[in-house]
Amino acid sequence: MMHVDLTATGWRTAAARALLYAFLSAAPFAVGSAPASAGGPDPTGPVAIDDTAEYMIASKVLGSPVRVAVWTPKGEPPVGGFPVVYSFDADFSFTLFAGLAENLAMTGRSVGKAPPVIVAVGYPDRRLDTDRRLLDMTPPSDHPAGRFDMPERPHGKPWSPLGGGDVYLDMLVQEVKPFVSARFPVDPERETLYGHSLGGLMTLHALFTRPDSFDAYVASSASLWVNNGQMLREATAFFDRAGEALAVPIPLRLTVGSQEEDLTRWERQQPGDLVRRRAWVAGNRMVGRARDLAELIAERGAGQIDLTFEVLDGEGHLSAHPVSVYRALVFAMER
């Protein structure tokens, strides 16, 4: 029988526990079931998630295939189409989005809020390729020579190539969005971009460099430490370029876990250099940099960006993810 320790990895708040229970209850299989006994039925195949489809797009922009996972709500779309949430990192975000969206759909419809179509992009082999992700999920350096000012990694290894984020965004905007709009009844005026961690960094980069690409943005636990805080410089440049206040400021939801500047109990028990890993999370200043960005937007961007900023009490970098997904769905449905 599966046992989930709700205190071990950051599942400390009532909201986070409710999300976990909702997600587990939405899964179309028995979480606590034991393996089949000898002589019992054989597996019939992998578990499938209802109302989902997967596509492999041959991206001309990237020069390589892209996996696109889509969840669609049941029933007729509203006038204008369903809202749509585009997410990075399909490999660990899509099932979370699909399960929670299914749970929210019935409640949302009962109060006149249509659930969104979920579109998540990932890699063909479903494997978390850290080096590829670092390339795709970091913007080009704003340094004149193109170099990156990066902290020492906890394991001491050198950084793999960085700065391919604009090409990855081109793929999303120029290839994935048209693919989706041609096949699904989505509202082109209710498109939300979501990202967590490095994905959150790229969500903000899209907002500050190509704000018309999406209608709203959700950045969860964004890696604002990349290139010595480049994203705050991008935000400053965005406000320097901005003219008069927009008639409708761009909605941005920015969140971070309150415990993201320390190690969780499990992380403290992992092998390796504990001092080096503590220095990593403390030096990245996940909470501090998120507050810095929120303050900058409040001071300079009130007429350009409609900011919702939240520090998620009791959550670390991993546990903040499902909480932010749930609230991103509500955010998209209420717009």
Explain the overall architecture.
Residues 133-154 are annotated as: Disordered. This is Siderophore esterase IroE-like, putative. Residues 144-154 have a biased composition (Basic and acidic residues). The protein is α/β, with parallel strands linked by helices and 335 residues long. It has a single domain, classed as Rossmann fold, CATH 3.40.50. Helices cover 39% and strands 18% of the residues. It contains ten helices and eight strands. It has helices at 14-26, 90-110, 130-136, 165-183, 198-209, 230-241, 265-269, 274-284, 286-300, 320-334; strands at residues 52-59, 64-71, 82-87, 117-122, 186-196, 216-220, 250-257, 305-312. The chain has an eight-stranded mixed beta sheet with strand order 1-2-4-3-5-6-7-8, sandwiched between helices. Strand 3 (82-87), helix 2 (90-110) and strand 4 form a beta-alpha-beta unit. Helix 1 packs across helix 2 and helix 5 packs parallel to helix 6 (230-241). The longest helix is centred in the first third of the chain and has 21 residues, at 90-110. It is globular and about 50 Å long. Mean pLDDT is 89; it is low at 1-12 and 20-34.
Describe this structure in a few short sentences.
About 40% of the residues lie in helices and about 20% in strands. α1 (about 15-25) packs across α10 and α5 (about 200-210) packs parallel to α6 (about 230-240). The chain has about 325 residues and is an alpha/beta fold.
